[in-house]
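Key idea: predict the complex, not the pieces.
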Amino acid sequence: MSPSLFNFIDARDKFVDSAKCALTGKSSKPLTHTFHQIPGNETEKKTTLDQALRGVLGDQIDQKKATCDDYLSLIYLSIDAVTEGICSATTPFLLLGDVLDCLPLDQCDKIFSFVEEKVSTWKSNSFYTAGKNYLLRMCNDLLRRLSKSQNTVFCGRIQLFLARLFPLSEKSGLNLQSQFNLDNITVFNKNEQESTLGQKHTEEKEENMEVEEGEMGEDDAPAPCSIPIDYNLYRKFWTLQDYFRNPVQCYDKFSWMTFLKYSDETLAVFKSYKLDDMQASKRKLEELRMSDGEHVYFAKFLTSEKLMDLQLSDGNFRRHILLQYLILFQYLKGQVKFKSSSCALNDDQATWIEETTKLVYQLLKEIPPDGDKFATMVEHILDTEENWNGWKNEGCPSFVKERTVDDKPKRPTRKRQAPEDFLGKGPDRKIFMGNDELTRLWNLNQDNMEACKSDSREFMPSLDEFFAEAIEQADPANMVEDEYKVVRNPNYGWRALRLLSRRSPHFFQPTNQKFKSLADYLDSMVSKLAKELPKDIPSEEIKTGEEDDDDNGDNLLKESNDSPSIQSKLVTNQQMDDIAAKLGAQWKSLASHLEMKAAELREIESDSEDVDMQAKLLLVAWQDREGTQATVDNLVTALNAAGFSQIADSLSEA
Amino acid sequence: MGPVELLHMSVFSLSYSPCGRFLAAGNNYGEIALFSLSAALSPDATSQSQKPVLTFTAHEGPIFSLISTDCHLLSAGNGEISAWSWTELIKKNVKPLWTRRPNYKSSLEIPEINSMIINPRDNSLVVGAGDNNIHILDMEHGEFKSVLQGHSDYVHCVSVREREGEILSGGEDGAVRIWDSRTGQSVHCIEVYKYEDCARPQYGKWISCVTTDSDWMLCSGGPALSLWHLRSLSPTSVFPLTGCQRQATFYQDKILAVGEGPYVSHCLLGGKVKAEIPCTSQSLNTLQLNTNSTEHRVLTVGGSSDHIDVFTNLSYKAFSLSF
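Result:
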């Protein structure tokens, strides 16, 4: 059976009737009921219902008897219908749009309150995508109808509603390219004309003025001004507004110079003209507030020259101007993606901006009441502006946080170093001190005493080195005068004595000679030494001769393993090879006497199959560990202890 | 005027024309310059309007005092007083109407005239001179009618107390004397430096400015600027200003004072210094308020430079006139 034809007109009429019933009955049941009754497919029925509802609204408006509540109930009905699924989601918005277009502004106010209340509904999934453009268009139409200065509150409400409805990153609400409102031109008198302000208004404004009280309200004649006016300041001051309107001008050199000059003058005036504390004139302010409703708010500057003095003495006005400066400076200094590359500050400009910013903040702090608090607040707000600027530069990313995906690979855990490694027993034989520098220092030589005994710390000169000069001078052939002899130098003498006590046996020999002075004593010593030392022989030989002579002194200083004592010699490679060959597979028993750990033994075993090799490895490991203590002596002891006395003997003999 | 002369110029005296549209300034070279205030204050003023419309040499020495009557300008410097007609001056005709010299006892040295003031009661000119005396010149007859003697050192400044018909004078000897203008006797003598509150021995005892408001008197110089109640002859407030003040005046509920220091001090009657408005010159000698005209009601100050600062709003310097 073919589906029955959908009769549009019939369906629509039925819908209209049931809609009216639903309205009177304040329930959407009749509508739903009708919907299901009418034959036809969903889409057709839905669109028909849309049309029907719009028709009902149209009738209501036509009749002019309906109140806002009636319209609202119809719209409620349509929302319910959408929830039920019998109506397309755009219908409520269309109805709203129709209503707002047809009603006068005061009634629009009420309708709009409804819209505001229902913002959560609009944001819900079923309505949002369908309706957001309609809502946007509707609000913009309303805004165009409204006057910003007269219906300010309503305009504000619409803006706030839009802000709540759309997410932050909604592009249509952003000034992405950071464009300026270039239409905001401040008009002021450039030559002497009728002032922009009527006389009457001048009389009403009785703020805390010092000078002009006598004059105000005096002169009723329109043409000449009754007070002296500083036209110079007036003109320069209002010209500044042009720079605030279009900051890009500042990048041009000539405009910048003008801006600089005028700003310096204006700020100098602000600086010298300090404002009163408002305490005294609070009374006056209260009176003023009661008489004049809109006291603090103004949308645009009043630029009559007669008001200049009044404006200069007004704290709020000053705050406006100083704040304009700060905002301008922030723009000039800031990184904005859409600034062209020619818009860059040079160093002088940057410096001037820095200095002037400080001055501006100082002036802000001085303006009563609560200047300090205001200044800190302004600074804070400008700081947050930086964040917004950065956000815009990145193309306004959404603030919704995405859930992070858990696919980070597991990092392999680091192997910790075994404790033995730290103490020099590990394969590197290095002691780790935890710090690179300490490790390096410690590994130069672990044993402090050993380090002190090393040759590089031998600072005492040998006898011949030290006394060479003295011996030469003592030679009569050289004819050196007494007073120039180095032995006369007390410093030299003292050092000579010390050296003699350490190296020379003559020092300890008793003598009957009585010496008058240190110099004489040294002379005799020098002559004795000279006799001992063979003359005209190169110094190396003298040194070796010295060594033979001066056995006593040496042993105190030199390390025992330097002297040719077999017992203290370090084990050589050759010796180790021999021992290894002899040890063979028995190297393990030696190992315990060499104080090798089981871990090391295992390592050696794993390193090589050949027993000879293993034995060699054992000895090498022992040598590495012992370092300078890897002497033949110690090895012999160990060998004997292990029972390898033959090997020990052969080692000792070698 | 070469640049060196301009550098060393000091403005000692200022006076407004009776119509209030012109300002006369006297400097240390003996010149008087006439500035047109109406031109300088008009909306289409140029830098040319801040130059004098007329400059002429009036005396041989510095002009310490300028005063205007309702049709004359009187100038005094090194011992002689000259009178000029304002209307003639505006027409740039620089011929003095008359020149007088007070009767000085000593003819060897001519004492300078530091200060002059008109006593409206009997239309006489009170002249404070360097010979320690005050000479009274009768304006109608042009004769010096009396001499007030009493100061032991030269007279810095004079003022009149209109209601009582008394003359006040302050001198280098540290005394402020109050004279009865009819009898010519010194009625009171206040030695300001003897009062501990005001005295500043580090500066000295001289009184460089005296101004009065019938009941109150301001005096300053070596001692600090102080406000005196004349009935009780006692100091009411002392103002903590650094430096010596050379001229002070009452204005509405405030006191304006200039002296050492590149600023005009605004003080409240209670003794508080409310503001110090910066000026061009390093130190200021004179300040005058133009009470003759409401349109050009400005404050001008002059001092140790060739610039005269003009204030339309007392709290900041609007522009400067210069010689």
